[in-house]
Amino acid sequence: MAERVRFRSSTGPMLTGLIDLPQGEVRGWGVFAHGFTLGKDSPAAARICRQLASEGIGMLRFDNLGLGDSEGDWGDGSFTVKVADTVEAAAFMAERGTPARLLVGHSWGGCAVLAAAGRVEGVRAVATVGAPSDPSHAEHQYDAFVDRVLADGSAQWLVGGIKALTLKRAFVEDVRRAQLLDVIPALHRPLLVMHSPTDATVGIENASEIFSLARHPRSFVSLEGSDHLLTAPGQARRAARIVSAWADPYLGD
Description:
With 253 residues, this protein is an alpha/beta fold. It has helices at residues 43-54, 78-95, 108-116, 146-152, 169-177, 204-213, 235-251; strands at residues 2-8, 14-20, 28-33, 57-62, 102-106, 125-129, 154-159, 163-168, 191-195, 218-222. It is built from 7 helices and 10 strands.
């Protein structure tokens, strides 16, 4: 069971999300950050959050700027805005009386929760799934358009042949400036890094770098057999069960 919600983004437009409500005994609450252009209904986001909810952990997953049901222009999003909107999502959860103790991020969303955690009061644990160690890794997805964007200010990008997004110069420059080298060692929260050794989109070396930069308590779990998007049956649910067990000591009041 999910509750549809809306809250204001850090830049003004309204963002739309779903709160997968916890079943049975409520163990805690969290926020999920989706991948680069994926959205709240992507397999990783939906299946992980539903599984966590089935185990008593309520999760807010939401569409970032200009994606899915959210307002705004994706090209105005950038990494800085994605991080700020993750903070806004956690603030929304606190305002409704269900403060997020857990942040979970998939792919680029993993970078976002690492950067956002230090700005969210009450967050006690962070988990990443298939996250790059450098946010600028995302440029690989649109590198064919970068020169045109930097020269003309913007360009249309057809994602997967079906979704048209506007890539803007400020977006590209913001992503290039973003880095986690100082953020990860200063996280001061338990960190779970999950990654598949056969991830063909974000290589396993990214998990190694995140883990090596992190301070204890830190944990690493190999999601062997999983693809980057966790699309095969059971992959996302397996990741969620691991998060659920690992996060248990950090959820209660």
